[in-house]
Amino acid sequence: MGMAVEAVAEDSSHEIVFRCDVDNQLTGELAARAEVIIDFSTAHCIKQNVESAMRAGTPFVTGTTGWQEELGAVQALVEKYDGSFLYAANFSVGVALFRQLVQQASRLFSAFENYDFAIRESHHNGKQDCPSGTALMLGETVLQHLPRKQRLVFGNQDGAIAAAELQISSSRFGAVPGTHSIFIDSAEDFIELKHVARGRAGFATGALRAAEWLQGRKGFFTLEDMLHTFTTQNF
Prior knowledge:
This protein is of the alpha/beta class. 37% of the residues lie in helices and 20% in strands. The model has no long low-confidence stretch (mean pLDDT 90).
C-alpha cells in the first residue's frame, strides 16, 4: 500500500518528503518535515507513530487495521495535542458506499426472521490481520441494524452457529487485493452483496484524498466524515 500511495502521489502535484519502513521508523523530527503523513504500517506501530505526528503538529492519515484495542489511547493523543487524525479500515470510496448498502439491507431484512446473514472475505496470502478490518466494519454494521444478530464469530466453528451469531469467514491465497461478500439466505431464495477490489490504486487514491481533506481540520475523523462533507455538497 505504501508503494501504491507513492505511485498515486507522483501522478499528482504532491511531493513525498520521506518514506518510513521497519529500518527507518517515524520520529517527531521526520514528522515535522511533512504537511501530512499517510500511514499503512502495522498495528503495533500505530500508537507510537500517532504520538510522533501529534507532537510535531502534523496531520495523520492511516489505513492500518488490527489496532482497535488502541483506539481509545490514540483518540486521547489526538485530543491531547489538538491534532488532526483520520482513519479507515478501507479507503475505497466504493467500500464506504457498499457499507451503506449493507446497513440498508440489514434494516430491510430485520423484519423477516427467516433470512440469515453471514460475511465472507478473501485477501492475498501476505495480509497480516484476519479477519480484515473491512469485514469487521461490515460485521459491526450488520449487528447495529439487525437486532437478532448480537455477536460476531470467526472462522469455521465446531458445531452449529447460534441464531444470534454472525459468522465472518476468511480466505488467504494468491494475490487477491480484497473481496467482501454479504450472504443473505432463506429457504426460498439467496441474496449476495459483493465488493471486489480490482487493485490497490483505489485505496491509495482514497487515502491521498483523505490527506487533502484533512488539511486545516482538527479532530479525530473517519472516512465517513469526509464522505459526508462531499455528499452534502452534492459532490
